[in-house]
User: What shape does this take?
Amino acid sequence: MPFTKWVRAYRRLLDLYPPSVDAAERDEMAECLDDLLNAARGRGPGASTVLFARALAHLPLDAVRARVDGPPTNRLHSKESTMNSVLQDIKLGVRGLGRSPGFAFLAAASLALGVGANTTILGMVSSALWTQLPVPDSERIVRLFETNSLGHGQSSYANYRDVLELSRDDLDGLFLHRLEPFGLQSQHGTSVIFGELVSGTYFDTLRMTPERGRFFTAKEVDHTGAAPRAVVSFDLWKRAFGGREEIVGETVRLNDREFEVVAVAPRDFDGTKYGLAMDLWVPIWAWADTQEWTAGWDTRRASSSWRAVARLRRGETMDSTARALEGTAARLEELDPETNRDLRLTVFSDLDGSISPHVAGIPRLIGWVAIAGSMLVLLVACANVASLLFARAIGRRQEVGIRFALGSGRLRLIRQLLTESLLLALLGGAGGIVMAALTSHWLMPLMPELPYRFAIDPAPDLRVVAMASAVALLSALLFGLAPALQASATKPLSALRGVPNSQGARPHRGLSVVVVAMVSFSLVTVVMTGLFLRSLDEVRGVAPGFSPEGRVFADYDVSLAGDSQLQPTPFAQDLLALAEDWPGVRSAAVSSALPLADWSERDTVFADDRVYDDEELGVAAWRSSVTSTYFQTLGTNLVSGRAFHRLDTADTEPVVIVNETLAGKLWPDGEALGRSIRLERLPGSGSVRVVGVVADGKYNFLNEKQQAAMFRPWAQSPRDRGVVVVDASSQVATLLPKLPELLEQLDPRVPILSTRTLEDHVSGSLWLFRLAATLAGVLGLLALGLSAAGLYGVMAYAVSQRKFELGVRTAIGASQGKILTLILGRGLRLAGAGLVLGVLLSLGLGSVMANMLFGVSPRDPLTLLLAVATLLSVSVLASLLPALRVSSRSPVEALRPSD
Amino acid sequence: MSFDANPHLPVKPVDFHVLLALAGEELHGYGLVQRIEEQSEGKVRLVPSNLYAVLRRLESRGLVARSDRRPVPDLEDQRRRYFRLTTLGLRVLRAEAERLRRLLLRGAEDRLLERPEMDRGTGGST
Assistant: This one.
């Protein structure tokens, strides 16, 4: 009787069974199902379907069981408890590893390196790039930017007030904030702390609950004359107020004005400035009142120094919200067609917006590339361990054969071998976590040096440790299972016969695959390393437009003293007069901001002798106020015209010095000297005459495109916050620690934010490149070392397996060179395949890397070539050592029965 | 081969069903499934893959053997093989049945089976 279609399909699936279940039995099972289905059909159409489904559902598991149990033997089922046999497995595993300590160490160390690298990177990425604000529904917190053709800009208070009003239905909250240094007065004098100036909507938008007290609201603080209030961080509460319960209601002195502490923020809240830990939150209006800001700061739309943060409405996305805000933006343009020309309100994720909207997406990409790199190293490590286990499994065929012969089950044997890999994983994982804990401390110096407290803690947290442990265990199964299955497939008889390798002269196929994979992954990692190192090298070679050598500087802020009599211009003059008298000082200058600092000001500039039509935009320029000796002190070349001099004061003609790029952009046709610029589109507002042109430099980042910059005389445009720079030439070491004394001498109430050498400042601005290069370098070295060890292990093993054959060859007259080429060829063929694969992988990954590199193509042929050459020479070395050892042995020794 | 039944006790429930089904007659796969379903009052319903797993296990322990005889040759084709109980199998089956019987007699009945009168007594007092 022919089978139905269903039964034929079932019969085909029965081929999943091991050969021990012969074809006759499979036919019989199919026949049985056929009978059952026929009988079921009598009970209705549903019954046979249900029966077939049940039969199908049971089949795979039963087939696997039949495979694992192996052919039926004449033994009783084991009476020992599972627990006992697991303990026994562990005991045997420990003993087995103890018998070959070299192997155990190599395998565990490989894993520790892989897991350690992974944990470190995961820890860094998760703390730097995967953190979210510790507030309810933090994924709905986004950043708003005022975007026009110049890019994404910050907000003015006036625009904020209108957006808040107009977008009530589109947003679930909106606030303004900015970083602000505060002078905190206590009986020990003034100390600088960093906090945020915020609109009253801040805590409502974030939906936070205070640790103590009650947060201020918009109604209470968003108007002039409001009682001065402040919220302190948990850390500041513990640090400066000893964690006193009665802190709420107490007053603190900030810039010498009294503020009432109304609340303590929750312990895990560091504020909304990315990566920085804020200590204080003060309402904008209270600060404007106490600091006596010039009237109109809240209505001038051009003064955009605030960052806007919003909460999306439930169910809305960034895109839908940006669309909903189009009407609001149009209304803003109506309100002020001049400043708000072509304005759009754009929405960025909290991470992208708080790092920089201009590099949106890149931080996350960096994170993924770092993780991918560390995963590659882990894969190489796993491959290395797998190759060791493979070799060991093949070498243990005899032992396995004996166990089979003594009646050990296949499942039991696999379990035993897996227990061994799990023990290795445990050792490696623990080692890796210890390593990660150590390296994260070692990574700290690579972070930028800033006066602020860092909120990024690269130490692995519980999440990351859990993940690393999972990775270690998973890899144990991954690299342990294949060799275990391989070993357990041993036929007892052939293994006991003592034939060294029944598969002939070729290394085992599983082993070859592992080696090829290992080499290709290593190549990718080494190429990545090369690209990052070359980027760092390129960016280091960029001229910053000034000479950092021999210069030291100190940051200060006169407003922190809280004395409105203390004016920045006389303060800077007195400071310079004092500094220039110091021994060892060649020249000194004060400037409002240093190039390559973590903060800067910019202005939009127009040529005064041109009429701009509506479509045209001005030139956005980095700007700084400087004293007359600035260019001389920093070693910046004056291309034409003059530097500032002491006669450029608030009462004389307003003047400016521009860089070559700004001059070229404003007057592409010719000379800039003597012509004038203005800061407004329309003529009539104060024009400023260009008296000098200086050489281009780098202003925000060393890897930036050439940007426009301008300098104003300090006296015509003074700032509370300043930097005093001193050209100390050879005296750097002695002058640096004495700089604070200089300010102390002048006015002890003015606190110093930081002091450093200009060289440290420049190299500090490269921290991201250095971090990338260091991490990639470490990963690259790890991958290289691991694959070299792996290849060596495999070749040494393959050679030992072929000892007999090689002995015979030598005995019948093969020369030493011949034997050498034979073995070397085998190793290089494997390495070659891995290299080809690796080159293809690297080329494919190139486009992902492009945005993270500087001055080097992601498919840079030189880097690829060097990486290939490095790996090739490592491969040659790894195969040469075992080859040399065997070729130098006498055939007699080789032919001796195995030891 | 030893003929001692004790090392095989206790017998797994599904093994017991197979042994019991084969106690009276030799059966092929389909017959076994039907008989077991019958004697378990529909509680144990096997499919080929797990039935044959049990049969292989019992065969490897010498409790069941394949039979060469065809009880009704004209109805069956070559694919069907019949299974029979071995002497050891019969012994194990009896020993297990005896074990179960003793288990029930040893007061287990009193503790396990419902006592309707007692339930009624407590219920009536309210």
